[in-house]
Specification:
There is one protein chain. By secondary structure, this protein is mostly helical. The chain is 68% helix and 0% strand. Helix 3 crosses helix 4 (100-115). The longest helix has 32 residues, at 3-34. It is globular, with a radius of gyration of 15 Å.
Amino acid sequence: MNESNQSAARVGTRRLERERRTVEAMITLYCRAHHRPMAGRCADCEALAAYAQQRLARCRFGAQKPTCGRCPIHCYAPAMRERIRAVMRYAGPRMLWHHPGLAFCHLVDALRSRLVPSVWRPE
């Protein structure tokens, strides 16, 4: 593997890891506001977080993955998709206050997926 491929792999790995942290933070914000667990997250939100992590790990686009809102493939089951949409709808605006770094990077990723042609974009 040459140096540019290694660099691209590191960037892709960092981006996916950041996306995992972003989803975790969103689910935690939502759970604290709606379910008020004593510590951590409730069982339902833990299950949703595990499902989201599994979907990210199995994403067919890998490092070139677009943000979920721009993805042409719906990999979530319909019930889980509605749950994660409710989480994102609530937590998205609040991320700017609670996790500004993750929110900014997510916005940059969304803009980048709109501006830069990529593997997943239909012709």
